[in-house]
Fold tRNA pseudouridine synthase B.
Amino acid sequence: MNTKEDFLNGQILLIDKPLEWSSFQAVNALKWAIRKKFGLKKIKIGHAGTLDPLATGLLIICTGKFTKKIPELQGQVKEYTGTFTLGATTPSYDLETEVNETFSTEHITTQSIQEATKQFLGEIDQVPPIFSALKKDGKRLYELAREGKQVDIKSRKIEILEFEITRIELPEVDFRVVCSKGTYIRSLAHDFGQVLGSGAHLTKLRRTKIGDFNVNNATSPNVFKENLEVNAST
């Protein structure tokens, strides 16, 4: 079991982030648990890539000297699974905001859904959602969005390595995507709806892999805390 020195020297911890937790909350839960267990005044700790509160799945948390590995880990290829709901859009491209427009889905077929994925494979230009934590003029985009301000957001180059449709039960479409750093799956949902001549928003998202790390090997923050209390040696 991990000792105080292990955490200070550096650990890579795989956490399965629960729904409605922010990434910051998950990091904080581990930080307090480690500090409390070993009587530490402070410990370096951070995550390698944010997950939205409405997403679940793999969060890599680094402690101690391993916080230096964060930039390298953030750059790894990621895999996500989830659900797009066709026929409606929201300003945030997910369930954070209410539906603002509805569209017909009668013209959409299984074949057109499968065909639409091909337009996103490879290197593409993607516009990040207005409801994101990116900064413009020192303010986060979601703050400007909530103030109702019009913002010109520049597109960025991302890469979609795999895009597979795993279930079609309209208006829901399940997917698996393997993509580069900086990809917004919410933007992919929005753009996917447009390609189909309809609308779409993201209603479920789970990060399953980051590089060689798999969510199957991750534990929830609460289980981590319980294990630490029971097993750790000081």
Q: What stands out?
A: The first strand starts at residue 12 and ends at 17. The mean pLDDT is 94. Helices lie at 4-9, 23-38, 70-74, 110-118, 141-146, 185-195, 221-231. Residues 23-38 form the longest helix (16 residues).
